[in-house]
Specification:
Helix content of chain B: over 70%
Low-confidence stretches of chain B: none
Distance between the termini of chain A: 78 Å
Mean pLDDT of chain B: 86
Shape of chain B: globular
Number of helices of chain A: 10
Structural class of chain B: mainly alpha
CATH topology of the largest domain in chain A: Rossmann fold
Order of helices and strands of chain A: HEHEHEHEHHEHEHEHEH
Helix content of chain A: 40-55%
Number of domains of chain A: 2
Oligomer: heterodimer
CATH superfamily of the largest domain in chain A: Nitrogenase molybdenum iron protein domain
Chain lengths: ~300, ~260
Amino acid sequence: MIKSFKYVLALLLIMNFAISYSKAEEKKINIFTCEPEWAILLQEIVKDKANIDSAIYGNQNPHFIQAKPSLIAKVKNSNMLVCTGAELEIGWLPMLIEKSAYKKSVVYVSNYVKMLDIPSKDEIDRKNGDVHPFGNPHIHLHPENIKAIASALLEKLKEVDSLNYDFYKKNHDEFIKKWDEKILKLKDKYKVLNGVNIVFHHKDFDYLTDWLKINKVAYLEEKAGVSPSAVYLRSIVDKIKNEKTKLIIRAPYSDKDASLFISNKTGIKNIVVPYSMDYDGKNTIFDLYDNILNAIEEGLK
Amino acid sequence: MDTLLIILPAVLFGICLSFLAIPLGLKVIKKGIIFLDIAIAQMAVLGSMIAEHIFEGVDDGNVYLVKTFSVCFSMLGSCFFYILNKKFNNFKSFESIIGITYVFMATICSLLLSIFHASFDSIEQIFAGKLLFLTYKELLQIGIIYLILGILIYATSLLTRDFIFYMVFAVVVSLAMPIVGIYFMFAILIIPALLFEKNKYNVFFGILFSVVVVVLGSLYSLYKDYPSGLIIVIFYVLFGGLVYFFRKSNLLFYF
């Protein structure tokens, strides 16, 4: 009896060592992203070799965030922080980094893409609303940006987690190949959108319209980030009617009143189009583009 | 342990604030002017909005300029209330004027927002505050000012002078406002003071209650991962109700 007990004990000890050993071996790096689109993109590269988490959920406005204890803890414990930059998170990221005493690498992915509408010096004034001096920060809706950012992230991963670099490189190359095919397919499928006249609430879909050559008739926001006044909305009704606008589009976090007002006055359909997706391990960047373009296509029917 | 450190500055600030807010709250309740804090808080917001507009682009020390301006603005507002208080002996009309001032200030804030066409940081902080983002540096800076005010309140009898009360109130509220937000400010001033108003040791019990709520609320918000400031406000109301209920049912004889 005692003998067998000894064996059991020995076995347990060995198992214990084995478990702790495998745990040590599996020590993953933690990556924290500000916006979920970067988490979704990173997932293509790191697969299961890193823990990824995102501060913002899919359809929250990236300009604002409500501080929760876990947010600070996650930044504290991460090895790499990935954010858009270009002042998109200016309202909360500096505070978050200071509070978490985070000193490791922060990747601002907007540094790696060609920014749209960088304002001239005279335009940078609070009177013009939330003007982003480094250009439009809603960069994830241009497929070329996704490619550039994927490569930039791979380079950063080389510094942060060099052990797994080969694995990341392989995934990255596979992703780029698949993404190139996807771009061609989407461009072909949504040719119809070329030159279609659409009104947007905010400048959040500018990269998409730039890519697919959608014609932006107007923005409902007179000044970025500020709810438009009724006077301004009335002043653009005629323009919207005359230019044979097909659709009014807003992101899920934008206020619906302006869209409904214009829609009522002109009889033009207004729709909500997804802007990003929750990072849940299942959603992919391919799904995001499919969902957005599907929504626009459905809206045009 | 590591995660506990995240909420530590918030808890410490809540405790500091309790020591100042309870004596002030008791006085507010006694005077029957419970909306004074909301009006003063709104003045602090208006002050920082104007300051942000004036000092825009002044990078170094900009934060301090804005803070100082907003504190001075609230003190000016407080002066106004002090003078009014002398003119109106009738509580009802004085309380109404405080209410009217609040509505007026809040409207001016909204109007400025549309004139300046900007989303001011202070606007989002009016309601929820940024308790969790508080750093030790800020805590120390405000802590020193609060310490001086604390000595003024506890070691001297200056608070019994109306004018001093109005000035101290303006400084405490306008410094705490950007951190805790308007709901928290109202709760910490009014609820403990209202509960223990008639007790002989009202200041002691008020602070004890407030500290317990701040600590438990912060721990619960950490455990459930909710925004701390909002949870603490909810705890003030729930625990306040609980103490009231126990006292009514004679389970707590002493209070």
